[in-house]
Amino acid sequence: MTTRRQFLKDMGMATAGITLGSVGNILANPLTSKEWVSAKQDKVKVAFIGIGNRGEQNAEEIAKTNMVDVVALCDVDMGAKHTQKVMNKFPNAKRFRNFRELFEKYSGQFDAVVASVPDHMHFPIGMMALNYGKHIYLEKPMCRTFHEAELMMENARRHPGVVTQVGNQGHSEGNYFQFKAWKEAGIIKDVTAITAHMNNPRRWHGWDANIYKFPDAQPIPENMDWDTWLGACQYHDYSDKFHYGNWRCWYDFGMGALGDWGAHILDTAHEFLNLGLPYEVSLTYQKGHNDYFYPYSSTILFRFASRGNMPPCDITWYDGLDNLPPLPKGYGNSEYNPDIPSTNQGNTPVTTLNPGKIIYTKDLIFKGGSHGSTLSIIPSAKAEEMKNKLPVVPKSPSNHYVNFLRACQGTEKTRSPFEINGVLSEVFCLGVIAQRMNTQLFFDPRLKRFTNNEFANSMLAGMPPRKGWEDFYKI
Questions:
Q1: Please, how many CA atoms are within 13 Å of residue 219, restricted to the half-sphere of its CB?
Q2: Helices (H), ranges, 317-473
Q3: I need a surface site. Which of 134, 142, 155, 258 has the fewest CB within 10 A?
Q4: What does the alpha-carbon distance between residue 49 and residue 108 come to, in Å, rounded to a whole number?
């Protein structure tokens, strides 16, 4: 006799990518109302990979849904102070330090994984989840190199029954539904330029840009699996300048301010304007450039070609305390979104200009914040003139976590799956290459290669994987 869980699993395989409203057109025997209720009540068995800091926040939010059974916890630093809260919250969950052991020894016990780990580990965990047929909620950015994004999207296509969701939470909030509704109604049209800005303090702003080597080795913390923490990256001696979130600062491990915040600021514009990949990526300003960690400040220009009846569009990215973008007349105040998750690195909002975007069209100018913040038309007089022409924006049926879990159950489709977020992640990877090389680059979106710099082409794949990690790069 088929169990309810097995039935649900088979149903999920059959309807991957199909929303609730169209299931009846696909299945010969569609679910009855009673079966849908049963499916919604069937808890998803989840394993958490990375349970400190951001992992703790994700674990708390997912536990709030009451839609999961937490069966496993995995962290390379299991037992360290920053992991203890989640360990105490789920004392009966099986514990692992090595995510490969989690999959190899315990995969029969869970349906999905939630990975909140350093950027350089997103790729191997994402690939392993796909290969084991496990749904995955993966923190952004999706990966760290252009080649990794290509492999992840291809692997996701080969596993259509596996649910994927990248953790740009605003993609399930007001920002997402408003942009979609306003574009469909013709309010947002003919976008020619977007300014994206993130000028908050970053961890590396106080570091010495005259750096000439990596930090000196320090003793590896007791019980830490440093080899697994490094993943496919070339070997580095342990330093607390890499650990506890500092990994975000380094080209070898993180994606800087662009990778950290770009997915929260540019996600809806990129998707609903069908921007795809740029034909030019140029670093037009930098301060504190070096070969090891990200600049103190940078301005990056992305140029996108016309798409159908949509005109060419330039996106200009600004980060750094001294690098504020020009503001249009009538911009007004810079609102702060209190719903933005804590970054654990100083959360006082920048009073001059908080993270967000300015969207320029042929007829209108919009300003918006980060994450789920909605857009407003500026100046205020124009907003007043337009208010009766604006469509009703539907409310989100589910937040980002519930959306993922309902997709695991087969009742919704994720809003930020690998196939959507992957191209946006590739845009950021190209931006980091220009940032790292401090130059102007021309890119062919069809051939997916630079046309004016062979060294930049080698950076699309990055350094070869460390011995023992090569198989993650094979499909």
A1: 3
A2: 380-386, 400-409, 418-437, 454-458
A3: 155
A4: 16
Q: Are 404 and 115 in contact (CB under 8 A)?
A: no
8-37: per-residue pLDDT in tens?
Answer: 344 334 333 323 333 333 233 444 444 444
Judge residue 163's burial from the number of C-beta atoms within 10 Å of its C-beta, 0-12 exposed, 13-18 middle, 19 or more buried: buried
Residue 343: the pLDDT is: 53
Sheet containing 191-198: order of strands = 376-378, 365-368, 356-361, 191-198, 313-319, 297-304, 280-287, 440-444, 449-450
Residue that the structure tokens 């609903």 belong to: 272
User: What average pLDDT score do residues 316-338 get?
Assistant: 91
* Cis amide linkage into residue 325, ω under 30° from 0: no
Q: Is the peptide bond before 141 cis (omega within 30 degrees of 0)?
A: yes
Q: How far is CA 179 from CA 145, 186, 281, 350, in A?
A: 28, 10, 25, 25
**Whole-number Å distance between alpha carbons of 193 and 218:** 47
Find out whether 238 and 215 touch, Cβ atoms under 8 Å. Answer: no
As separate numbers, helices (DSSP H) first and strands (DSSP E) second, the chain gives 15, 15
Element (H, E) at 136: strand 135-138
Cβ-contact 197, 285 below 8 angstroms: no
Q: What does the alpha-carbon distance between residue 458 and residue 134 come to, in Å, rounded to a whole number?
A: 32
- Angle at which helices 146-158 and 122-131 cross, to 10°: 10
Residue 410 — φ and ψ, nearest 5°?
A: 90, 10
- Tens of pLDDT, residue by residue over 223-249, are 899 999 999 999 999 999 999 999 999
